[in-house]
Amino acid sequence: MLELNGETFLVQSGSYVASSEGIAIDTKWGGAKTFFASEGLFLLKCSGRGTLILSSYGAIHDRSLAAGEKYTVDTGHLVAFTENVGFNVRMVGGLKSTLFSGEGLVVDLTGPGKVLMQTRSSDAFLTWLIPQVQRRLPREHH
Fold first, then answer.
1. CA-to-CA distance for 14 and 118, rounded, in angstroms?
2. Phi then psi for 131, rounded to 5 degrees?
3. Does a cis peptide bond (omega within 30 degrees of 0) precede residue 112?
4. Which residues, in sequence order, are bridge partners of residue 89?
5. d(CA 21, CA 112)
6. pLDDT digits 0-9 by tens, 41-89
């Protein structure tokens, strides 16, 4: 739960749960469609004064970035960040981030601002889980 006092957070759409009346949610800003385009996810721009409730897979850890400080996060672990944080999404060869792409995606963040990350990744869990389930399914004999 975040208390916003006039600041703006960019929130990964799957992490948004609810917000109080004083929070405006914008889905039409330019970065919303391009940020996670290859993963089919987008960002919500949440701003105003009031309560913003977010969910995560695992605990949420926050990190404050100093002006010019750079920090790289796997896109599957990113929950939200303040609007003033610069960001650039890029592929990292060999790092499995999603079930459907052979390339992992990370986001390079540049301060100043605040970043919220989740300790677990649902993509990583599913990547591990699906082969386990498939091995245990009974095989049909013809």
1. 12
2. -60, -30
3. yes
4. 107
5. 28
6. 578 999 999 999 998 888 899 999 999 999 998 888 889 999 999 988 8
